[in-house]
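Progress report, Aim 2. The chain analyzed during this reporting quarter is listed below.
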Amino acid sequence: MTLHLWDAATPNDGDLGEWYGYDTQFSYDEQRRCMNLKTDEVDAIDRTASITISHHVAGPAIGRWKNIATGSGELSLEITLGASSTHTHEVTNEVSSTITAEMSEECKFGIASETMTVSASVTSSIQETTSTALTYSVGATTSFTCKGADNTQSVGIWQWTTESNDGNFVALSEVMLCRFGADFDQEPPCPIGSCDDDTCDTCVDWHGD
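Predicted structure tokens for the chain:
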């Protein structure tokens, strides 16, 4: 995140004014130390009209289906929900703030190695589902059972997730799919909110402009 100081002396069309060359970067979870607005480098006491904090957005958030498990016949699992970080064992507020900021810019659907633009309605579904996922406490789980047509059919459990653009943070939602038959281990071709059948093999139109 970046903290900016804005000058009241040169307003810009009624906005905050002009940024006059002082900023500092810090982590979302870092306690911000007190600032001295009068230093050898900048005398900001009289000219500072406002202070803003901006969140760095690397790009759009990416929603995708994640394979949780595969097997045959029937699978019953406790599946983890909520915010997760891929690069640290500690889950912090930065996970939620980063994904939320990126979702507000744009959401995309990720399948295989591609990311694709989605419609406004699918974007809304991703945002709503992800926002709910981010409210779960650390360690939250849900039970899910996936059964094939018979005890020998291959099955796969898929969970909807939303990742930060750099892949460091992920929101694990309560939305699950049970896929069976020939495509049990293949990623569903439709993003959340556009599946036209229970196994998400066929889609309603979800592509964005």
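Residues 8-14 have pLDDT under 50 and may be disordered. Residues 120-133 form the longest helix (14 residues). These observations will guide the mutagenesis work planned for the next reporting period.
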